[in-house]
Amino acid sequence: MEALDLINVPETKLNAQQAMACFTCATCVSGCPATGIDGFDARKLVRMAVLGMEKELIDARWPWICTMCGRCDYACPMGVKIGDLIRNIRYSSPKDGEQLRHPQGRFRLRHERCGRGIRRRGRL
């Protein structure tokens, strides 16, 4: 087995270069409401992005489990924008050969209400 070259990580469409600052302290995980659902762990997601596992992340269910509440971004002492990374993964996921679009209709309205509730009360 070859050693991983973490110095020359290839640039991907996920734009994970800023995630290199992560030192897996688990601060993001401690406040995440989705941690543990189907094995979701923000640290794993960031590590996979840093290691160039783009296809695995795009095919994974984890980016869709995230509530996008932003607690991980707020808590990270290194300023890693995990929410941006998850958005990039979501928008890179193919659906019938096309890029995914923003939610539409009633789903979008529910999504916006959920986000406002999280910002106001810190939970759903």
Task: Give a description of the structure.
- The chain has 124 residues and is mostly helical.
- Helix content is 45%, strand content 3%.
- The chain contains seven helices and two strands; from the N terminus they run ααααααββα.
- It has helices spanning 27-30, 42-50, 54-59, 62-65, 71-75, 82-92, 105-121; strands spanning 94-95, 98-99.
- A two-stranded antiparallel sheet has the order 1-2.
- The relative contact order is 0.16.
- The model has no long low-confidence stretch (mean pLDDT 77).
Structural class: mainly alpha
How many strands? 2
- Unreliable sequence segments: none
Strand content: under 5%
Question: Helicity level, as a percent range?
Answer: 40-55%
Average of pLDDT: 77
Shape: globular
**What is the string of helix and strand elements?**
HHHHHHEEH
Helical element count? 7
How far is the first residue's CA from the last residue's CA? 45 Å
Describe the SSE topology.
Layout: H1 27-30, H2 42-50, H3 54-59, H4 62-65, H5 71-75, H6 82-92, E1 94-95, E2 98-99, H7 105-121
Antiparallel strand pairs: 1-2
